[in-house]
Amino acid sequence: xxxxxxxxxxxxxxxxxxxxxxxxxHTYEHDPSSASYGLEAADALGVAAGRVFKTLVIDLDxxxxxxxxxxxxxxxxxxxxSALGGKKAQLADPAAxxxxxxxxxxxxxxxGQRRALxxxxxxxxxxxxxxxxxxxxRGLEAEVSPTDLVQLTRxxxxxIAR
Length: 162
Fold this sequence. Notes:
The protein is α/β, with parallel strands linked by helices. It is 25% helix and 26% strand. The protein has a 5-stranded mixed β-sheet with strand order 4-2-3-5-8. 46% of the residues are buried.
């Protein structure tokens, strides 16, 4: 089941283990001055930026939801709202995102959140045999199959990145 060490003792990895999923933890030294957590992860791990996905908490018509997109791209808020059946989306208040998910900014994982939020994952996730998402803290990534990510988060997939 991949590596198992003290560094991956997060709710995200606990959720993966409970689901019996094959997952690999990747750690790297996080640089607090880094401008982009996701691009930093891709660079540190030596993988294509399109294969590393960032987790963004959005406010969709007053409901917090999650959008997962490649770190090299931006979230199309209108497309995310449409994919989740809403009208208007905006990035959630950072404090609300942290409080609701149980994670800190730069370490928000789509997995093992304090309260599972409705999720949409960009359709490009299916272009890779495995993808990297936050493992629940800065400097920790979980490598999972796109199918496992979508199933475990009960996500819909849609073209939400631009």
